[in-house]
Write the structure tokens for this entry.
Amino acid sequence: ITIQSGAKVGAIFGGGYLASATDHVNIIVDKEAEVGCIYGGGLIPNADSSKAITQSVNIEVNGTAGLVYAGGRAAVDVSLANSVDLANKTANNWVGESNVTINGHVREYYGSSFSYGGIGTVNCTVNGRIYNENKTNPYSAVCGANGYCGEATMTVAAGGEVGNDLYCSMRGYVGNITLNNAGTIKRVSLNP
């Protein structure tokens, strides 16, 4: 999936809708292109227990993205126990591996899925900027939000910037987290 220069897109999903399986996906946002939200995995609507599985995704933002989730958009109103299988290290909304490269501008970044989803391994490299100028107290997270994350790494390269608060992890089941910084990070915290 390539969003070309000059285009504006509301949302991109790297996986399918409801019960679906996707192998490998490349999502590229060109310079001068703008995307509201990028989800590395699929979409499961609220209160649904379908399985949306994405094996791997590469996300490259050279333009602008409002929000990037390395994983998918999991269902809300389904319990954690019915969404995440901790014994088998998987979830109903699952991304096996996600590689995110931010060369442009991303307003907020989360290294897993929205809600009770899961991700095996996520690697994020920030050569550009993560900064939300439009929100009071914005933040991003190396690891995701509420579900399962096996391993998350963020590397802020020389010249890269995280201009708002950066949490190492959010709520949920969190595995190993690594943060490498050769650039600029406003403030780092273990948890929100």
In short: The mean pLDDT is 93. The helical segments are 80-83. The first helix runs from residue 80 to 83. The two ends are 33 Å apart (CA to CA).
